[in-house]
Amino acid sequence: MVHRIGSENRSAPTQKGSASAILDLLLLYKGHPRPLLLHNTYTYRSIFSSFIFSPNSSLRVEKEERKMVKICCIGAGYVGGPTMAVIALKCPTIEVVVVDISVPRITAWNSDTLPIYEPGLDDVVKQCRGKNLFFSTEVEKHVHEADIVFVSVNTPTKTRGLGAGKAADLTYWESAARMIADVSKSDKIVVEKSTVPVKTAEAIEKILTHNSKGITFQILSNPEFLAEGTAIEDLFKPDRVLIGGRETPGGQKAIQALKDVYAHWVPEGNIITTNLWSAELSKLAANAFLAQRISSVNAMSALCEATGANVTQVAYAVGKDSRIGPKFLNASVGFGGSCFQKDILNLVYICECNGLPEVAEYWKQVIKINDYQKSRFVNRVVASMFNTVSNKKVAILGFAFKKDTGDTRETPAIDVCKGLMGDNAKLSIYDPQVQEDQIQRDLSMKKFDWDHPLHLQPMSPTSVKQQVSVSMDAYGATKDAHAVCILTEWDEFKTLDFQKIYDNMQKPAFVFDGRNVVNADKLREIGFIVYSIGKPLDAWLKDMPAVA
Ligand SMILES: NC(=O)c1ccc[n+]([C@@H]2O[C@H](COP(=O)([O-])OP(=O)(O)OC[C@H]3O[C@@H](n4cnc5c(N)ncnc54)[C@H](O)[C@@H]3O)[C@@H](O)[C@H]2O)c1
């Protein structure tokens, strides 16, 4: 008989909490001499389920053929997809199903062209898809069958009502929690993977327990620290895995169960366990600290330009101090991505709600400097080009928020392009990983609307097609352009033939390097007027005021 974990055909009701049972089983499995390698992925016996669901498990385990432990992840996005793929790869004894309400996303995950670009991801998915990794739109079925449910859905910034523009919109999280409560017929560990406001677990717990039918849910916070572009590397070798849970025996056992999943490949010393609120807040704090470093160096870049200092030299000297360290000190046109701004706004809102306006104000400055840096860049471009870019072709190299990803959420390129379009520029955009429809959509969308499932994103009636064209390569984008703006640090931009680009551009030809990727001296030798963020200005630029 094949015994399905959590399925209705199980013969005995749960006698012990699932967390406790999962722990027992994982421990037992760890001590077991490779018990699960006996058969292929679908048919091998797992000792896991019997301990969860059977009061007489020691007898039953000998007799019954069972399925492996099952993880279901709600949300097949940038976090859910890669995270679960790596769990599946590292834990061949665990069945992992990633579910999503978006049919195109799941179709893409099941195809040769994955819905997100991430170095190394294709390889990982290919190794386990169809074995112990599955992608499905049958959300309820797989949640119902799972022992551990990760929730990795969107948590956008609210655009209306209380806390609009700051607070996290937990609509998707809440609907996922209600669905889990509705379809569950067995005990489950529910893991917050999404970044959520501190104390969300309390609300989720209320939804789950309010609807439960004698079922025990243990809520864990397991925020994800991967960075896009290096997600697979980060997941293979995380600086730390953070697991927060209730300080009750049940909570501690749930923590242990999840810890044992990660222990398949993460050294124990790198798995940190805390209470729920510390784990939830740590994620917001980590993103706030990271973004703060970027805003700090960007603030310095403005001062460098004003004084003749070189921000790269300053950052190097500062970063040599072992208390500060060298990472995350690259000046740029600004940070982007789906997390930093959203999480800081959320942090600001939480501070305000907790009567801490001074703390809120402090973190708000990180966003303000980021916005300042983007508008400073636009002003520099316009001011340098005789105070107008009206009807001038400006090439935009790079649209993704960083290299090695096709993700454009909150990319600084959006604000820079909108700023230039506001001055009536004609933009010609090239990014090696971003498709034309994505660029057109991003430039037509209102702030924060991007962070919703694709099919629920509101479309703006404004079309930007007349002002924006998208090129297949950097040479096409720059042909006949008056200026080039480099907005993503793609490696291929470092090795472009700038002589060829210069020859095909209008003169004077400008390069505005928002990522400090080009060799400004070489470009000046060719004849370009070059602006590099935070570097000493060349004579042309010095004479042009660039007031933000
Ligand atoms: N992207 C990152 O680098 C990163 C890093 C750490 C944490 N996070 C956090 O992780 C969470 C997810 O981020 P992401 O970048 O993966 O987002 P995403 O938009 O790429 O993916 C979220 C997915 O959830 C799906 N979804 C929404 N509601 C659903 C529901 N009720 N049932 C099933 N599917 C549903 C959407 O269709 C979408 O595919 C967010 O809270 C984010 O802040 C993101």
Tell me briefly what this model is:
The protein is α/β, with parallel strands linked by helices and 548 residues long. The protein has 21 helices and 16 strands.
Identify the notable features of this structure and list them briefly.
alpha/beta, eight-stranded mixed β-sheet, 2 domains, binds nicotinamide-adenine-dinucleotide, 13% strand, Rossmann fold, 548 residues, 16 strands, disordered N terminus
Tell me the Rg in angstroms.
26 Å
Number of helices: 21
Strand order of the largest sheet: 5-4-3-6-7-8-9-10
Q: Could you state the oligomeric state of the chains shown?
A: single chain
In whole angstroms, the N-to-C terminal distance is: 71 Å
Biggest β-sheet description? 8 strands, mixed
* Shape, per Cα inertia axes: globular
CATH architecture assignment name of the largest domain:
3-Layer(aba) Sandwich
CATH homologous superfamily grouping of the largest domain: NAD(P)-binding Rossmann-like Domain
CATH fold name of the largest domain: Rossmann fold
Structural classification:
alpha/beta
In percent terms, what proportion of residues is strand? 5-15%
- The percent of residues in helical segments reads 40-55%
EC number: 1.1.1.22
Active site: 339 (nucleophile)
Family: Belongs to the UDP-glucose/GDP-mannose dehydrogenase family.
Protein name: UDP-glucose 6-dehydrogenase
Task: Present the secondary structure layout.
Layout: E1 2-3, H1 18-31, H2 48-53, H3 57-63, E2 65-66, E3 69-74, H4 80-90, E4 94-99, H5 103-109, H6 121-128, E5 133-136, H7 139-145, E6 148-151, H8 171-183, E7 188-192, H9 200-211, E8 217-221, H10 231-236, E9 241-245, H11 249-262, E10 271-275, H12 276-307, H13 311-319, H14 340-353, H15 357-384, E11 393-397, H16 412-422, E12 426-430, H17 436-444, E13 468-470, H18 474-478, E14 483-486, H19 498-503, E15 510-513, H20 520-526, E16 529-532, H21 539-542
Parallel strand pairs: 1-2, 3-4, 3-6, 4-5, 6-7, 7-8, 9-10, 11-12, 11-14, 12-13, 14-15, 15-16
Antiparallel strand pairs: 8-9
Helix pairs in contact: 1-11, 4-6, 8-9, 12-14, 12-15, 14-15, 15-16
Bound molecules: nicotinamide-adenine-dinucleotide.
Enzyme class: oxidoreductase
Active site: 339
InterPro entries: 6-PGluconate_DH-like_C_sf, NAD(P)-bd_dom_sf, UDP-Glc/GDP-Man, UDP-Glc/GDP-Man_DH_C, UDP-Glc/GDP-Man_DH_C_sf, UDP-Glc/GDP-Man_DH_dimer, UDP-Glc/GDP-Man_DH_N, UDPglc_DH_euk
